[in-house]
Amino acid sequence: MITIADIEAARDRITPYVRRTPILEASLARDPIPLQASVVMKLELNQVTGSFKARGAMNRLLGTPQEEISKGIVTASGGNHGLAVARTAKVAGVPAVVFVPETVSPAKVEKMRRWDADVRVVGTEWSVSNDAAHDYARTSGASYFHPFADPLVVAGQGTLGLEILDQAWDFDTIVVAIGGGGLVSGLSTAIKARRPDIRVVAVEPIGSPTIKASLDAGEVVTLPEVTSRVATMSCRRTDERLFEIARRNIAEVVLVSDEAMLDASRWLWFEFGIAADLSGAASIAALQSGHPAFKDSKRICAIICGAGAEGTVS
Predict the structure, then answer these.
(1) Strands 299-304, 173-177: pairing kind
(2) Cβ–Cβ < 8 Å for 173, 299
(3) In tens digits, what is the pLDDT along the chain, a chain of 314 residues?
(4) Which of 227, 303, 230, 51 has the alpha carbon at shortest distance from 153?
């Protein structure tokens, strides 16, 4: 689907439009993460619009002929990709329409509208919203920006991997949340091209184990239902191309509950003043779970991939 050259080209393309986000040691906590390994956190929630999604959406825009977006941009999103598309459309000077499921964070909807997006709530989960976005694209002529199954989007997300390697070479394990699989595919492609020894551990909700179910089956499967309330990580089916990357690069998938992600989000707020959404806290939830995936790790990089206020309210 993509190569390291695609990711390097994306980095060169989007650098003027995205932030270089910081890395922070997860140290001096009242309640430390229960691991022997040390942990650093990549604070991608400080990215433009509050998540890594700004990278992929901007690369998709800059890699697309101007005439193809003249009638605007449309997408379906659990929240973070919609925010990124709303901001990207604003930069391009074209309208954005974002279809979201009923489980979307109201705060993210408000932020999309502040970026002047037309936000439409359709369906109880992302696949229904996505069908509506495709219908709108066909009738309006707007350019459809897929949140994960798009090579330009995946290459854009992969720039996060290059940036992490520039900042912190000494980790042996990286932990990343999965929704549809675009971030883990792009990031792991970059990481494995430069440091094939690094283990990539992915995190999914118990109520939306899209990649794990497919890995267990040896092929892409469609989940019969999605029960997770975390809209940014809920997806019934991944893309076949992303599955092949996941099968090649992911060492293990850790499943966590919605409640564990909320607890991790509260931990991040209490210990570090970091306002992460539940997907942003997923990597910490996995580390706090005691899962054996981390028993041999010495130094871990946890991606805090999305911003949100869920953990700031007790």
Answers:
(1) parallel
(2) yes
(3) 899 999 999 999 999 999 999 999 999 999 999 999 999 999 999 999 999 999 999 999 999 999 999 999 999 999 999 999 999 999 999 999 999 999 999 999 999 999 999 999 999 999 999 999 999 999 999 999 999 999 999 999 999 999 999 998 899 999 999 999 999 999 999 999 999 999 999 999 999 999 999 999 999 999 999 999 999 999 999 999 999 999 999 999 999 999 999 999 999 999 999 999 999 999 999 999 999 999 999 999 999 999 999 989 86
(4) 51
Global confidence as pTM? 0.96
Kindly list the distances between the CA atom of residue 127 and the CA atoms of 37, 109, 123, 158, 297, in Å, as whole numbers in the listed order: 38, 18, 8, 24, 36
Nearest to 186 by CA among 236, 211, 152: 152
| Nearest-angstrom CA–CA distance, 280 and 44 | 9
Domains parsed from the chain with CATH numbers: 4-52+150-312 (3.40.50.1100), 53-144 (3.40.50.1100)
Pairing mode of beta strands 23-25, 38-43: antiparallel
Token pair of 261 as six digits:
């992600």
What is the sign of the dihedral through the CA atoms of 142, 92, 43 and 242? positive
- Asked if 176 contacts 283 with a C-beta cutoff of 8 angstroms, the reply is yes
The pair phi, psi for residue 68, each rounded to 5°, is -75, -15
Question: Which DSSP helix (H) or strand (E) runs through 49?
Answer: none
Q: How far apart are CA 158 and CA 70, in angstroms?
A: 27
User: Amino acid letter at 221?
Assistant: V
